[in-house]
Design goal:
Length: 150
């Protein structure tokens, strides 16, 4: 059993003071609603590297374009907020830029939530544009599209 001092009011006062400081902070965290869209590179892997003379006489092409260094990258768009992201929250499509020395050969759509989210993926020079299109009025509530590209 814990031995409390004979005068327990200082202990009670200290506990009450801590509670007074923590309760408003915890209520703010619990009740705080926000919309937060994040874009993250989930994985990146080098598939082919012929740029350092490793290939010898091997030539790799993709749709007729010579390729010497090929990477696969997975990018995830996620709603990290506490509120769903609605169709009206998007002013314009998302634009993901890559270094000028790289070019995006292909991009595919992986998992998505909600299932009726139908983003349009457009390849541009050094960039990928994602236009989030909804078939119904349901918002992005979990993770959005997962884009896999080469």
């Amino acid at each position: 059993m814990i031995n409390l001092p004979s005068n327990k009011w200082p202990v009670v006062s200290a506990v009450a003071a801590i509670a007074v400081l923590l309760v408003p902070f915890l209520l703010y965290i619990i009740g705080h609603e926000n919309k937060d869209l994040s874009v993250a590179t989930v994985s990146r892997a080098v598939l082919v590297n012929l740029s350092q003379g490793e290939g010898g006489s091997v030539t790799l092409t993709y749709n007729g374009t010579p390729v010497s260094h090929l990477k696969a990258t997975t990018i995830e768009v996620r709603n990290d907020g506490t509120m769903p992201i609605e169709r009206t929250d998007f002013e314009r499509p998302l634009l993901i830029k890559f270094p000028k020395s790289s070019s995006v050969l292909a991009a595919t759509l992986g998992e998505k939530a909600p299932e009726d989210l139908q983003p349009v993926i457009t390849l541009e020079v050094g960039a990928v544009t994602i236009a989030p299109l909804f078939q119904s009025r349901r918002p992005i509530s979990g993770h959005g599209p997962v884009i896999r590209g080469f």
